[in-house]
Amino acid sequence: MREGRKVTRCAASVLEDINKNCLEEFRRHWNCLENNNQQLWQCRVHEWRLNKCVFEKLGLEKKIPDAPTNETPVHLRKRQIYSHNEPGVIT
Question: Residues 6 or more apart from 30 whose CB is under 8 A from it?
Answer without folding.
Answer: none
